[in-house]
Specification:
Blueprint lengths: L1 E5 L3 H12 L3 E5 L3 H8 L10 H11 L2 E4 L2 H7 L2 E4 L14 H12 L5 E5 L7 H12 L6 E5 L9 H6 L4 E4 L3 H10 L7 E4 L1 H31 L4 H9 L20 H15 L4 H25 L6 E5 L14 H11 L3 E5 L4 H7 L6 E3 L3 H5 L4 E4 L4 H4 L3 H7 L4 E4 L6 H6 L3 E3 L5
Parallel strand pairs: 1-2, 1-4, 2-3, 4-5, 5-6, 7-8, 9-10, 9-12, 10-11, 12-13, 13-14
Helix pairs in contact: 1-3, 5-6, 9-11, 9-12, 11-12, 12-13
This protein binds nicotinamide-adenine-dinucleotide.
The site of nicotinamide-adenine-dinucleotide has 27 residues, from α1 and α5.
């Protein structure tokens, strides 16, 4: 069985390498030709722990290759995983034009039975549209199936998540499609849940929105904590000890970002609207999240009053640790707010600086630093926006000596308030004194 991966971005690249590691023959293709060229040289275009090692391993073993040729990849594959982007549109809905375009190309190159697998996050009912498009555009009368196999990997631990999944969701409506996917994921047979396609599509949006809801929930609770003597870290710990609640995704902070949660919550709201179901609760989740950055900027102003010409170190740019992804990162909105107030910024991130330079170019008022220590030199305040381990291990005595004013505004509760204050810092964090 030959498997083609269409769209080798974060998900497609990890899927290609992950399926190769499961022993399959994989060809990845993408319209971004530079990604393909790099991949064929054993270079991953994204930073993801363990990815490049496996990429090199399977290129060498010969069961993984990357091609510029979309049509050729379609005609030579039995199974096609579609992992193209489904970005948010102005009205909140997912832009399905990339999926539609790929569906047409598959139709035009149908040269035998093919299983088309939705790997991208798509609105419920997308499979019906893919089927319709393939039927409308196919030139030869071959059979095909569409199935849903949503991806649950987390950036930063994507390879591990792919190879040690909690569950494999297979939404299929024919025995053939179900059997092919079950065979592909044979190694995880104890973790496979088979559903119809609508259910599988909805599982992905429902899961992401639920996790986003947990984050917004604890952030709301953190606001209450700030008005009282309660400590949000301990509230979350106390809640998480209840096995019905669980500890994960109860970290108060500057809110969620990334290419999935913000867009998936809004897409589900729109899906509800289109289907006549009011998902008001999720609108609130989004609203609470958007307000986090504003609250964080208020804390900076509380500490510094006037931001104009203040030198501020921004530690952490990626939307989460262990990734170079800055899509929808809270850091972007914080930086924009500080720029509009005329602050002088020194930015540092272990992996995401190059990506951020495209969003926030270097200028007289924005400098990218090579180390956190360089960033905090002469700073009037240091902001922590991404919880990289590197920041947990900072030599705070050295940081204090380097800063003009020892003020830390911690948007991820990385440090213990007492310890930092003992060292002589003025310290602000989220939902605790
Ligand atoms: P991405 O933007 O990194 O990758 C998408 C890739 O598809 C790009 O490289 C793009 O060039 C390519 N592409 C677009 N049109 C194409 C075409 N016609 N032919 C070939 N390639 C084409 O996006 P991503 O983060 O990998 O996400 C892909 C999908 O997976 C989205 O629906 C997303 O919501 C979902 N998802 C993402 C994550 C995540 O953590 N990033 C996790 C689970 C699911």
């Amino acid at each position: 069985m030959k498997i083609g991966i269409i769209g080798t971005g974060y998900v497609g690249m990890v899927t290609a390498v992950g399926l190769a590691e499961l022993g399959h023959n994989i060809t990845g293709t993408d319209i971004a030709l530079e990604k393909i060229d790099k991949a064929n040289q054993g270079i991953a275009h994204i930073y993801e722990p363990g990815l490049e090692e496996l990429l090199k391993k399977h290129l060498k073993a010969g069961n993984l290759t990357f091609s510029h040729d979309l049509d050729g990849t379609i005609s030579s594959s039995d199974v096609l995983f579609v992992s193209v982007n489904t970005p948010q549109q102005e009205d909140g809905s997912a832009d399905m034009s990339f999926v539609e375009s790929v569906s047409r190309r598959i139709a035009e190159n149908l040269n035998g039975y093919k299983l088309i697998v939705e790997k991208s996050t798509v609105p419920v009912k997308t499979s019906s549209w893919i089927k319709r498009i393939v039927c409308l555009y196919k030139k030869q009368d071959y059979d095909f199936d569409v199935a849903s196999n949503p991806e649950f990997l987390r950036e930063g631990s994507a390879v591990k998540d792919f190879l040690e999944p909690d569950r494999i969701i297979i939404g299929a409506e024919t025995d053939k499609a179900r059997d092919i996917l079950t065979k592909i994921y044979k190694k995880f047979q104890d973790r496979i849940l088979i559903t119809n396609i609508d259910t599988a599509e909805l599982i992905k949006h429902a899961s992401n929105s639920f996790l986003a809801m947990k984050i917004s929930y604890i952030n709301l609770i953190s606001d209450l904590c700030e008005k009282t003597d309660a400590n949000v870290e301990l509230v979350a710990e106390g809640m998480g000890l209840d096995s019905r609640i669980g500890k994960q995704f109860l970290k108060a902070g500057v809110g969620y970002g990334g290419s999935c949660f913000p867009k998936d919550v809004r897409a589900l709201v729109k899906i509800g609207e289109d289907l006549g179901v009011d998902l008001n609760m999720l609108k609130e989740v989004d609203k609470v999240n958007t307000a986090r950055v504003e609250r964080f900027v208020e804390k900076i102003k509380k500490a510094l009053w006037i931001l104009k010409d203040k030198q501020i170190a921004v530690l952490g740019l990626a939307f989460k640790p262990e990734t170079d992804d800055i899509r929808n990162a809270p850091s972007i909105r914080v930086i924009q707010a500080l720029q509009s107030e005329g602050a002088l910024l020194r930015l540092y991130d272990p992996k995401a600086a190059e990506n951020m330079k495209e969003e926030v170019p270097e200028s007289a008022k924005v400098v990218y630093s090579d180390s956190p220590y360089e960033a905090v030199k002469e700073a009037n305040a240091a902001l922590l926006i991404t919880e990289w381990d590197e920041f947990r291990c900072l030599d705070l005595k050295k940081v204090k000596e380097l800063m003009a004013n020892p003020i830390i505004i911690d948007g991820r509760n990385i440090f213990e308030p007492e310890k930092v204050r003992e060292l002589g810092f003025e310290y602000y964090s989220v939902g605790r004194e």
